[in-house]
């Protein structure tokens, strides 16, 4: 409900992920609770979710419904997270704004006269507006860092290949710089929890190209003041 309310104000969603309520019922019956148990998680438009399109803001992808979840979505679900909406991006995602000809312009909830940044702009707007507490964006040249900054949030661009790549719509890429998925939230502890949940045996098994190095809490705390 909150997400739809924020969307009415800033136009940040591209889709509602059906089946999320069923998933919650299924989770309740499981004995083992994952690190992200019951947390609704927003997902950037280009990350594949079964039964949905990954438009990348481009009309040519509108008819291509994805047949399976990308690895990151599978791992989020394995950890008890509930992907519930997909969020807007600029066309081709090579832009620091957030608009395309399919879903239109996303606004910054802190100031509707301003951009939320990009390319993970829908994520930035939704989380800053109070419609999500944790989201997954992606970053090549600032696409997590810029909207996090524009919207007053915390975001992390992990090291390249630390997390399994998107499994997403073909969009232009800068080969010299690895595109990487990463968390966006309102505080650093949420980012750390998400990384700890993602860097698990499930991810390393689903994508053997990802180095099987779990999250190191000591290294994070060592850097704290």
TrEMBL record:
Keyword annotations of the record: Hydrolase
Amidase domain mapped to chain residues: 5-212
Alphabetized GO MF terms: amidase activity; fatty acid amide hydrolase activity
Keyword Cytoplasm set for record: no
A Gene Ontology biological process term: fatty acid catabolic process
PROSITE patterns noted in UniProt: AMIDASES
Database matches in InterPro entries: Amidase_CS, Amidase_dom, AS_sf, Endocannabinoid_amidase
Domain of life: Eukaryota
A Pfam family: Amidase
UniProt similarity note: Belongs to the amidase family.
PANTHER family: FATTY ACID AMIDE HYDROLASE (PTHR45847), FATTY ACID AMIDE HYDROLASE-RELATED (PTHR45847:SF8)
The protein's name in its UniProt record: VDHAP protein
Species this chain originates from: Vireo altiloquus (Black-whiskered vireo)
